[in-house]
Amino acid sequence: MNNEKPFIEVAHYQVCKHKQGAPGDVFLSQKNSTDGRVITTLSDGLGSGIKAGVLASLTATMATRFVASNIPIKRAAEIIMNTLPVCKERGISYATFTLVDIEPNSAVHIVEYDNPPYILVREQTILDPIKDISSFERRDKSTAPKVEAQLHYSRYEARPGDRLVFFSDGVTQAGMGSASYPFGWGITNVQDFVLKKILSEPQISARELARLVVNEALFHDAYKAKDDITCGVIYSRNPRDLLVITGPPMHKENDSEITRIFNLFEGKKVICGGTTANILARELNRQIRVQLKRPDPQVPPYSEMDGADLVTEGIITMGKVAEMLEKGEQTGYARENAATKLVELFLNSDRIQFVVGTKINEAHQDPNMPVELEIRRNVIKKIASTLESKYLKEVHVQFF
């Protein structure tokens, strides 16, 4: 697997400003199906709350779509700058942004406007890429005086193991006014923190690193965020594989085939569904052990079996997983159960293979069951689509 093409893991973590129900920072990422480019934007709206979030969402959406439409990244940034409104009182743009465009040939293009500078870590060292600074007057007739904008553009060739860390000023300004950091946590301290975490855990995922940065900033704000705190991380590494086997095959003779797939798979393995688990336990001559510690009334308990990283109930758990993935719930604050454990496995994996049995379970056709309890195949398709579009995972589905 070491000779494989590196996988680009993109993840972020976010905390809203204290007492705000909606974030003023927006993080968008997509992978172009046509050319394989990965485009990511972090935008920070002026202020906080819904108004800031709307402006940040507009900025991030424009940036992502322009670059996806093959508009050169610097040109796209200038169009955005001349489109967005400006605060008349403060003479600054209503939203800042960091825009990252990663080509399939590993060329990385980055444009920054008024966000803290990104951190690039390679071979456990922080690099300092050369940045081209472009200044221009915004063509916004409604503002006086005229506003001069500065865009920072940089380009480098990504290598396996590279980590690109970028964030809103809620990170660098955390703790401002405190005895420890009267001027805020600051970019130098953030760099030291990121490097220390990578040195202590060289294989740390993008998700976990982003979470640690945000939680450290929140700590400096005494756990009452003074601004929206968002951190994004892009990590180039060897792909992590996950197999999910769910549902009994249509024909019993295929029981041995799904067992063979399970045995030969190199990566983490999940079994969803009691009937499926019983088939594999029988074929492999293994025991299933149900875990009844801290039961959750909404999600059936998970189980353990030698060779499997997780064994869960089927349709109810998968339905909850689909809901959590679609909402983008951060499992760090959720009660641990079978669904949260499965979501963590999905988000910490890159290539996900579903092996789906198509035999109908008559229990799911009971009209007394909840309406939202969809048939297994449709739930899997929904999860697969969300993993691909929202989390940039490579997903393959095989039906039996």
Q: Would you kindly provide a written description of the structure presented here, covering whatever features stand out?
A:
The structure is a single chain. The chain is an alpha+beta fold and 400 residues long. Helix content is 30%, strand content 28%. The protein contains 10 helices and 20 strands. It has helices spanning 49-68, 73-83, 169-172, 187-200, 206-220, 255-264, 274-284, 315-327, 338-347, 376-389; strands at residues 7-15, 25-31, 38-45, 86-87, 92-93, 95-102, 107-113, 119-122, 125-127, 131-137, 148-157, 163-167, 229-237, 241-246, 268-272, 289-290, 303-304, 310-312, 351-356, 394-399. A 6-stranded antiparallel β-sheet has the order 2-3-6-7-11-10, with helices on one face. Strand 14, helix 6 (255-264) and strand 15 form a beta-alpha-beta unit. The chain is elongated, with a radius of gyration of 23 Å. It starts with 6 loop residues before the first strand and ends with a strand. Residues 369-374 have low confidence and may be disordered.
Q: What overall geometry do the principal axes of the alpha carbons give?
A: elongated
| C-alpha end-to-end distance | 27 Å
Lateral strand order in the biggest sheet: 2-3-6-7-11-10
Strand-residue fraction?
25-35%
- Average pLDDT reading: 88
Stretches where pLDDT is under 50 for at least 5 consecutive residues are 369-374
Q: From the alpha carbons, calculate the radius of gyration and give it in angstroms.
A: 23 Å
- Alpha plus pi helix count: 10
Tell me about the largest β-sheet: 6 strands, antiparallel
Helix content: 25-40%
Question: Which class best fits the helix and strand makeup?
Answer: alpha+beta
Report the order of strands and helices.
Answer: EEEHHEEEEEEEEEHHHEEHEHEEEHHEHE
Count the E strands: 20
